[in-house]
UniProtKB/TrEMBL annotation:
InterPro entries: PDZ, PDZ_sf, Peptidase_M4/M1_CTD_sf, Peptidase_M61, Peptidase_M61_catalytic, Peptidase_M61_N. It comes from Castellaniella hirudinis. Residues 473-566 form the PDZ domain. This is M61 family metallopeptidase. It comes from the Bacteria.
Length: 597
């Protein structure tokens, strides 16, 4: 197709102080019955309706210089009046969301996801697109960082990291390559011959780029070896020339969003290593996040649930399989740090113990399965409130324990000959490798037991029925013992408990969650109550409450004063035994069937 016949998006960095992008969309052959334009209601990988269209401030359509009427037909859609020539749509997008999901722009940098900026020409989503990135008027020296390929062969094709034309085979690809523009700190490395860029935006003095690149290189190489042990071909070479980690560094952020050849991450400044210093403890958290999103390059960006092949971005897409796509990814993220040699086995086992702490602490796991949690991600996991620990289970954390349990069960049944790795490779061959090469099919909702059997010979139907579709805890103690790892649990401390989560409040200590069946619940306390005194003594923070509880024993009664809204209430709580358990995993011998490591 000739360039002048392609749908084109021009992006201008129009107003840094006001955080506004100016977009010009040109549709060469609009629908003669009237062209509809639609922005996604959600962004793949983040399962919540975001209503990105609410940030479009103004929109004008024209054709051949004459205005074309455009009116909204739903929250995300505009319909233009019929016109004969090319349709031009100028619109302004407000971008002040420094998350991995949205768009952001000020005088220091610009970052955007296409879901926030690019209206789809409805009915023409399969058409190739051009993206014209214009250099900013207000700043010099800015460069472009994205995995979206340059419009090769075009006279205005963007040079590497430059402004100009980029291209996408279709709309789905256009919105799957976030873009960072500015003056970030950057380093590149190769893993099995494939280029990877690490791009850090935000102030980080003395950032140890070399150290991060060396560790990331090992992690990426280990993952490529897992999925493609023979060819060692990186997955993103099916359309992109490089993989890009776009990292935003803030004081207290954490999060990531996966894309087909890149990821957007947010991390804490304090979790990054500085030159000449020992890496901070939180560095493993950062590497785990990087590993997690990179694993998604295979698992969810190419191996997908059928519900996401293709995505319908106008409404929620329901699948019971996020325990596979997020849970398995959460299992492998830390495991790949171990296999890559970035952490040692005791450090890895500590991370598994921490996951067990998180999963087993909350009673919601006995009410909701990870399959149910996946299906209801849109309305429950992504809309958590004070009662969520009592009502929900995480398909990430429990999903990772299901993956560990499955891995150990496959190893047991196959006498150590097969593992979850074989399942991932089968999924990759059957669904992932050719996903963007004309074979876009996804995993059916009920396919996992048969796929695991096909990959390994192991029958895990009952295991999945109990622990993924059902709500039973994953029986890890005996399974870990078989591979030489002892699992034990001790109380976190000896202090008696109210069994609540609290949050700091200038007026006292706020009860954030009251765990069901715990002492506070039985005494009639509620989430939201403001604790101001215990046994007639003022409580101002969690440490003060802990000191008071340290002097008490389980079974004793404690008088509490709380405000519920503006009403003072008195409750008598019978203190409980320490509820929180700390799980420890320790190697005590060699395993009969080999360990996941
Ligand atoms: Zn994920």
């Amino acid at each position: 197709m000739k360039n002048e016949q392609m749908i084109q998006y021009q992006v201008r960095l129009a107003d840094p102080a006001g955080h506004r992008y100016a977009i010009r969309l040109t549709i060469p052959r609009p629908d003669p019955a009237g062209q509809s334009l639609r922005l996604p209601a959600w962004i793949p990988g983040s399962y919540l309706i975001r209503d990105f269209a609410r940030q479009i401030e103004t929109l004008q359509a024209s054709s051949g210089g004459a205005p074309v009427a455009a009116r909204k037909t739903d929250s995300h859609t505009w319909r233009c009046a019929p016109c004969t020539g090319p349709l031009t749509v100028d619109y302004q997008v407000y971008a002040w969301d420094l998350s991995v999901r949205g768009a952001h722009f000020d005088e220091s940098h610009a970052f955007f996801n296409g879901c926030s900026l690019f209206l789809a020409a409805v009915g023409q989503e399969a058409q190739p697109c051009l993206l014209d990135l214009c250099p900013p008027a207000h700043a010099r020296g800015w460069q472009v960082y994205t995995s979206l390929p340059s419009a090769a062969g075009h006279p205005d094709a963007a040079p590497l990291r430059g402004f100009g034309l980029y291209q996408a085979r279709d709309y789905d690809e256009l919105i799957d390559h976030p873009v960072e523009i500015g003056t970030p700190q950057c380093i590149s490395f190769e893993a099995h011959g494939a280029v990877h860029d690490l791009v850090f935006t935000g102030r980080v003095p003395n950032l140890d780029l070399e150290r991060i690149a060396a560790d990331a290189q090992k992690i990426c190489a280990a993952q490529i070896e897992l999925f493609e042990p023979a060819s060692r071909r990186a997955p993103f070479l099916d359309g992109a020339e490089r993989y890009v980690f776009l990292v935003t560094v803030t004081g207290d952020g954490y999060g990531g969003l996966e894309h087909r050849a890149s990821t957007a991450l947010i991390t804490r400044r304090a979790d990054l290593p500085a030159q000449g210093c020992a890496a901070p403890e939180g560095y493993v958290t950062f590497l785990g996040l990087l590993s997690h999103e990179y694993f998604h390059t295979w698992n969810v960006k190419r191996i997908k649930p059928a519900a996401f092949a293709p995505y319908d971005l106008s409404r929620p897409g329901h699948t019971e399989l996020l325990w596979v796509f997020e849970g398995f990814t959460s299992y492998y993220d830390d495991l790949m740090l171990l296999r890559a040699g970035v952490i040692d086995e005791p450090a890895y086992l500590k991370l598994v113990g921490r996951t067990l702490d998180q999963v087993l602490r909350a009673g919601g796991r006995l009410k909701q399965s990870v399959a149910e949690s996946s299906f209801d991600a849109w309305t429950r996991y992504y809309k958590q409130d004070e009662n969520s620990p009592n009502a929900l289970v995480s398909y990430y954390t429990k999903g990772s324990l299901v993956a560990l349990g499955l891995d150990l069960e496959i190893r047991r049944q196959s006498g150590g000959a097969r593992s979850l790795d074989d399942v991932m490779r089968l999924l990759w061959r059957r669904y992932g490798r050719d996903f963007y090469q004309g074979r876009p099919r996804g995993v059916a909702e009920d396919a996992m037991p048969a796929l695991i059997q096909a990959a390994t010979g192991a029958d895990v139907t009952d295991f999945i029925a109990r622990h993924a579709l059902g709500r039973e805890d994953v029986p890890l103690k005996a399974a870990l013992a078989r591979v030489g790892i002892e699992l034990s649990a001790q109380p976190e401390h000896t202090r008696p408990t109210l069994d609540v989560r609290t949050q700091a409040d200038p007026a006292g200590l706020r009860l954030a969650t009251v765990h069901e069946h715990g002492p506070a619940h039985r005494a009639g306390l509620s989430a939201g109550d403001l604790l101001i005194a215990a046994d007639g003594l003022r409580i101002t923070d969690a440490a003060g409450l802990d000191r008071l509880l340290d002097a008490r024993r389980p079974g004793e009664r404690l008088s509490l004063h709380v405000f519920r809204r503006d009403e003072l209430r008195q409750h008598t709580v019978r203190l409980g035994k320490p509820a929180a358990l700390r799980h420890q995993l320790q190697r005590v011998g060699g395993g009969a069937h080999g360990t996941p490591a």
